[in-house]
Amino acid sequence: MNNSHTEVAIIGGGIVGCAIAYYVSKASIDCTLIEKGDLVSGTSSRCDGNVTIVDKDPGFDSQMSLVSQELILELYKELDLPFEYRALGSILVCDNEEEMDAAKKWVETQSKAGLKFHVLNPIDIRQESPYFADDIPGGLVCETDSLINPYLFCYSLVDKAKQFGLKLRTHSEVTAITKNEDFTIETTNGTIVAKKVVNAAGVWAPFIGKMLDIHIPIIPRKGHILVGARQKPIMMRNVMEFGYLMNKFGRERKVDERTKGHGVALVLEPTESQNFLLGSSRQFVGYDGSVDINVVETMAKRALRFFPKIDDFKMIRTYTGFRPWTEDHLPIISSVEKVRGFYIAAGHEGDGISLATVTGKLVEELVREKEETIIPLEPLRYDRFAHTPVT
Ligand SMILES: Cc1cc2nc3c(=O)[nH]c(=O)nc-3n(C[C@H](O)[C@H](O)[C@H](O)COP(=O)(O)OP(=O)(O)OC[C@H]3O[C@@H](n4cnc5c(N)ncnc54)[C@H](O)[C@@H]3O)c2cc1C
Predict the structure, then answer these.
(1) Residues in CB range of 375: below 8 A, 6 or more apart
(2) 188 Cα to the center of ligand 1, angstroms
(3) Atom of ligand 1 nearest to the CA of 222
(4) Rounded Cα–Cα distance for residues 209 and 206 (Å)
(5) Nearest C-alpha neighbor of 323 from the set 289, 366, 362, 273
(6) pLDDT 10s digits, 105-163
């Protein structure tokens, strides 16, 4: 059994915890990252790797993502272990003319905010991939979007953080936390005493909160992914359908009942090695991570609407992950007034890969109690959910 003292304990070794560990260690703060399983064994290894603005609400959401993209570019230059970073932009495709009109408005709004968005016509779409359907009316592109391998990115962050002095405790499940002057964190692998604690446990953040009688309104939103075998090069950059935005933000969409019921919208991410990840679904079904073949079928069918020419492509496997959902689609990155020294960095829903770096930097500034922060704290405060009933 290990017992130790640390200045900052971070609970959760997903992409958010790893990014925090990196920035806090880099600031020469004594820091310990605690993970119940292996590193990156939660949602951050059961997702896509899109670092996008294309699917963010114009305004604070987009601006926060832009800062994160700039930080990832810095890390691409700074970290030692490569993480399959590709800054090629990403595209959205439309199903019909009505969506095309909405897409044009989306481009207008995002461009006015200074973001690099352009409309794509049907010929542009054909040039993106020879496998696209002939009747796609067009779409849009966001030039600054990029792709990473989230799993490798986490290992790369931790590798560098260890060089700055990070202590890593894997296979150490936090089972209880008490607070006197310091926090005493009981784990299945010893006790850790910390001056400050960061809860970066993703969809499990509410359980950590409960240990200190703090209600955290984060709910798991399940997603399925189908993995395609490497065969013929399918395309180079990530593509989503416009309806993905509707699903994510819970807006009305004209699709069949099954597609709507399973929250399915096309996402196709080409990996660096030209396997491809097909998604995705959105469902509130608690913490049941089993694969539902009905959902997988709906996803495959939806993919064929946009890519009918890949119907003979081989698929290798399928998996699920849980997006940490909050009611207003923004994460909680915040101190908690009731328990001084306790911070929450969770609730990134389908944006945790995109927003991990800005989250890491922000938490580093929070624990150092800096007056000026890289982005405004207000929209991310925990107490915006003060009205949310405990369930
Ligand atoms: C299908 C799918 C596709 C997605 N695609 C994208 C995408 O393309 N782009 C994007 O930006 N986002 C995407 N997301 C969202 C993104 O994956 C998540 O927002 C992100 O991974 C959350 O990271 P996290 O570090 O908060 O949580 P996690 O990765 O789940 O990390 C939390 C960690 O805490 C640990 N933990 C829990 N309880 C304890 C305990 N008691 N003690 C110690 N450790 C504990 C867990 O084991 C886990 O490793 C997708 C999600 C899904 C499901």
Answers:
(1) 60, 63, 64, 67, 358, 362
(2) 21
(3) 53
(4) 5
(5) 289
(6) 999 999 998 999 999 999 999 999 999 999 999 999 999 999 999 999 999 999 999 99
Contacts of 326 (CB under 8 A, 6+ apart): 217, 218, 219, 332, 347, 349, 385
Q: Tell me how crowded residue 315 is: count the other CB atoms within 10 A of its CB.
A: 15
Q: How far is the CA of 362 from the centre of ligand 1 (A)?
A: 18
Q: Which two tokens stand for residue 86?
A: 């590709």
Helix, strand, coil: what percent of the chain each, to 5? 35, 25, 40
Ligand 1 contacts CB of residue 10 (under 6 A)? no
11-30: per-residue pLDDT in tens?
999 999 999 999 999 999 99
The DSSP code for 50 is: E
Strands 139-142 and 90-93: antiparallel
55 alpha carbon to ligand 1 midpoint, in Å? 18
> Ligand 1 centroid vs 37 CA: distance in angstroms?
13
13 lines ligand 1 (CB under 6 A): yes
- Please identify, by atom number, the ligand 1 atom nearest to the C-alpha of residue 203: 30
